[in-house]
């Protein structure tokens, strides 16, 4: 029987070490390959930016914010941070659409001022601005009296019986009360979704006005995602749920610091809102 020398043992150890190094690198490469560039979200953000620029909304701060997030998303793609890039691209699209809405509101305001200004009698044909107005059909299981109003940016209906989900300060964890309210909302939504195959649930994430815009956008996104995950656990399919973050842009009870310091108002702004919309 051949004796095994110390050099043979050392060679065997090195071989096993190199094998495990190769296996780790191969596994890491596979995991990176599994992640995909969020091309659909990037394209949607780019189209929204182009649409905003084409109507002159690139003068607004909302457009500049959207452009910044789009550039951030492209940089993150180069770094292969695809999940973060996807979030930035979605936020970019939301701010570009917000810029469009606000610019069209400004145009409408100017037209009204011109119409009211004293001048020669001239018939003015005003073209109605329809962006942001919901064009939802009559839905089964929803009576007009059930509708509280339209959602942020006019994407759908807010129903009176659907509860808002509130969060603790600087948190996206669901409290026991929040979970109970989500469960109640799901019990209402299931029948509506069954009767209307073309309907989905949009979950908006909102924050109070403390903190930077960028931080609050991401916090609002995390809040919407936390609600979405719990809604899925309650039996609503993922493809029937959409999410969006508006950060601190649309407070329910405006209270900008340092002029305002009212926790009772801030607590109303840290919320998730359920919206009925058409897919």
Properties at a glance:
alpha+beta; four-stranded mixed β-sheet; 2 domains; two-stranded antiparallel sheet; globular; 279 residues
Could you explain how this protein is built, in words?
- This protein has helices at residues 6-34, 39-54, 61-78, 82-116, 176-195, 213-233, 263-269, and strands spanning 147-150, 157-159, 165-166, 199-206, 241-247, 271-278.
- With 279 residues, it is of the alpha+beta class.
- The protein has two domains: 24-128, Up-down Bundle (Substrate Binding Domain Of Dnak, Chain:A, Domain 2), CATH 1.20.1270; 144-278, 2-Layer Sandwich (60s Ribosomal Protein L30, Chain: A).
- The chain has a four-stranded mixed beta sheet, sandwiched between helices. A two-stranded antiparallel sheet has the order 1-2.
- A hairpin with a 6-residue loop joins strand 1 and strand 2 (157-159).
- Helix 2 (39-54) runs antiparallel to helix 3 (61-78) and helix 2 runs parallel beside helix 4 (82-116).
- The termini are far apart.
- Residues 28-33 and 121-134 have low confidence and may be disordered.
């Amino acid at each position: 029987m051949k004796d095994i020398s110390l050099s043979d043992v050392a060679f065997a150890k090195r071989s096993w070490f190199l094998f495990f190094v190769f296996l780790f690198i191969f596994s890491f490469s596979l995991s990176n390959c599994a992640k995909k560039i969020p091309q659909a979200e990037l394209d949607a953000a780019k189209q929204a930016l182009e649409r905003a620029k084409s109507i002159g909304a690139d003068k607004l701060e909302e457009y500049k914010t959207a452009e910044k997030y789009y550039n951030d998303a492209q940089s993150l793609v180069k770094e292969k941070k695809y999940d973060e890039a996807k979030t930035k691209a979605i936020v970019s699209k939301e701010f570009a659409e917000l810029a469009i809405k606000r610019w069209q509101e400004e145009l409408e305001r100017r037209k009204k001022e011109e119409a009211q200004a004293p001048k020669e009698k001239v018939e003015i044909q005003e073209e109605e601005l329809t962006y942001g107005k919901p064009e939802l059909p009559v839905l089964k299981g929803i009576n007009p009296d059930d509708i509280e109003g339209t959602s942020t940016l006019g994407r759908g209906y807010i129903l009176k019986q659907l509860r808002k989900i509130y969060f603790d300060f600087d948190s996206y964890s669901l409290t026991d009360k929040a979970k109970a309210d989500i469960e109640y909302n799901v019990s209402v939504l299931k029948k509506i979704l069954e009767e209307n195959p073309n309907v989905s649930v949009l979950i908006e994430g909102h924050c109070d006005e403390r903190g930077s815009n960028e931080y609050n956008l991401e916090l609002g996104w995390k809040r919407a995602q936390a609600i979405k995950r719990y809604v899925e656990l309650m039996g609503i399919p993922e493809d029937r749920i959409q999410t969006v973050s508006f950060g601190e842009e649309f407070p329910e009870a405006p209270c900008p610091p340092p002029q305002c310091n009212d926790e009772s108002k801030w607590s109303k702004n840290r919320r998730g809102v359920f919206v009925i919309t058409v897919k």
